[in-house]
From TrEMBL:
Name of the protein in question: DUF1688 domain-containing protein
Source species: Thamnocephalis sphaerospora
InterPro entries: DUF1688
PANTHER family according to UniProt: PROTEIN URG3 (PTHR31687:SF3), PTHR31687
């Protein structure tokens, strides 16, 4: 949910052409539609360039997020390792904002077709 948290807070955004492609794919797949008949989130395959970019940017930003949290709490990396930042902060925050923004699904802002072998 960290990547979703970054999208939900407009830190990361899909490129317009990727957004359009993902929404068209969501529509064709019959994903959830809003009241105007538009898909609520774009839908991609796991190997789509938009997903590869999103994941790469998310990973690169995680260290900055962790640094900011540690700084705010005056803790070292040993005292607050990245795993704790993820589990106790970004994951929970991502779930919370997903529930607020997408109460029908509580899902991420970008849907990925996956068999679970890539995460």
């Amino acid at each position: 949910m960290v990547g979703g948290l970054l999208v939900d807070h407009d830190i990361l955004r899909l490129r317009p052409e990727a957004q359009a492609r993902g929404l068209a794919r969501a529509r064709a797949a019959g994903h959830a539609l809003d009241s105007s008949g538009q898909p609520t989130v774009p839908y991609f395959t796991v190997d789509d360039p938009a997903i590869v970019e999103w994941r790469a940017l998310t990973v690169s930003l995680l260290d900055l997020v962790a640094q900011g949290v540690r700084s705010a709490l005056n803790l070292s990396a040993d005292q607050l390792p990245l795993a704790k930042v993820l589990e106790g902060g970004t994951w929970k925050a991502g779930r919370r904002i997903a529930a607020e923004r997408r109460p029908d699904t509580c899902g991420p802002p970008i849907a990925i077709e996956s068999d679970g072998t890539v995460f």
